[in-house]
Input
Amino acid sequence: MDLGTVEGVEQSARPQKGSDRQVRQGRCWKRWGALIGVAAVSLMMIAGAQIADGPKTVEAEQFILRARDGKILARLGAGKADTPRFSLFDRSGKPRGGIELKEDGTPSIYFVDRDGHSRLLMFLDEDDTPSLGFLDREGHARLQMRVDKDGNSILSLHDHRDRPRMHLGAYGTGRDRVSLFIKDEDGRTRLSLGSHPNPSIYLYDKNGKGRILCSIDEDGEPGLTFLDKDENELFHVPPVPPAPKTK
Output
């Protein structure tokens, strides 16, 4: 275009088709941009009001807590049976403890050693009996404390084959009493100590029959009783005085 001639000046003064189209497009984009901006601000205001006024809920199938180096420290999610489970991990990534619900709904808390063996368990049984169990490295329960549904406190010791070897209980049947039972490898009681109604010691044979009883009666007198295999009295030391004769 030559602006040095009259034709060039007239040509430059006439509107160009391309430039008009660009102006119209620019105005259109401006209008759409303004509408989008107003809509975005409105949505943000509505969302902000809902967050401020409504319940704050976050839903997910799993939550993971990581350290700054990316290692997992804790995990909250569902177990194999779709039951809730919260697990804790040490710095090396090994599980060390957690809380979970079993399929029957009973809760438990567990602690794990560095080799991955459960060593301590706290749980409720199906009848809501609270228990505390100590396990060895092979997973055998060696010591258990519990309170049964009747309110009796019981302490049990087990050998390396899960066989009960000793029971210590505080029972509340009428008058409170404390009893100790020592068992053999077959689970039969061989020795017992009791406090109700009078302090006593029982010795049992291999069939679980009481054969010797040592006790103190209500008057404070000691006694020693020998029994046969059917637990019938053979003799008593000192001898039981004969019953007074009636006229």
